[in-house]
Amino acid sequence: MTGTVAADARHRARQRQPPPDPYTIVGDGPRERLLTALAQSIREQGFRGTTVADVVARARTSRRTFYEHFDDRGQALIALFDAVNDVAIRAIAAAVDPTAPWTTQVDQALDVHVGVIEAEPEITVSFVRELPALGAEAIAVQAAVTDRFADLIVGLVDTPEWRAAGVQPLPRHTAVLLVGGLRELIVYAVERGEDLSALHPPARDAVKAVLDPSRRRWV
Question: Rounded to the nearest 10 degrees, what angle do helices 52-59 and 73-95 cross at?
């Protein structure tokens, strides 16, 4: 089996493996159950229609337990955002075959990233619309998530396969630009009520245009 054929076979095998559901938080402790319950409630009635009572009922726990972990439902939403992105980052890293052509690696990463967003539009809407109003803690968590995604991109690009394709290590500011651009694309689509599946082509085109080794000239 040639290198290209082998890479294609690995890519197809990875595609057949569904990514983990990042909205079912790993773990069976009360905090994890509360976050999973919050996600379930948002799916059905939105964040604004969700109360602490809804969350504790779904989690089969008590208000006291809820307030042992979160000050309010806003803080719980911040924690859900952080947890979901942590799982998504791990899923992206696992989905990328480092031996595949760089364009295939981009497709693999974005299929997972955009797929998570597309699969849970109600929760995506809550993150986009509610988090900005939750103050300094939300801003700090969003910045930390941006850092983690930037670290992921820098690491995925800095491999022997990418260097063999003529790509030098990616500057961190460029990685942050990609993360921010994808986030704004999501916000744009959500605020206009667009079909989130339509994000796949422009996301792929934009990222490939930035990473294309025939066009990149870093200084």
Answer: 50
Handedness of CA 155, 18, 122, 36 (dihedral sign): negative
The Cα–Cα gap between 128 and 145 comes to 14
Contact between residue 141 and residue 82 where contact means Cβ atoms under 8 Å apart: yes
Query: Which residue is listed with tokens 């990514």?
Result: 19
Q: Could you state, in chain order, the average pLDDT of each consecutive group of 10 residues for the chain (219 residues)?
A: 47 47 66 94 93 96 96 96 90 92 92 85 88 93 95 93 84 94 88 86 91 66
* Coil, strand or helix at 170: coil
CA distances from 169 to 144, 151, 158, 213 (A): 22, 12, 5, 11
Q: Nearest CA to 203 among 219, 184, 176, 175?
A: 184
What is this structure's pTM?
0.83
* Tokens matching residue 182: 């994808």
Q: Which residues contact 22 (CB under 8 A, 6 or more apart)?
A: 83, 84, 85, 87, 88, 91, 116
Q: 112 with 64: CB under 8 angstroms?
A: no
Asked if 36 and 25 touch (Cβ cutoff 8 Å), the reply is: yes
Contact 210, 178 (CB under 8 A): yes
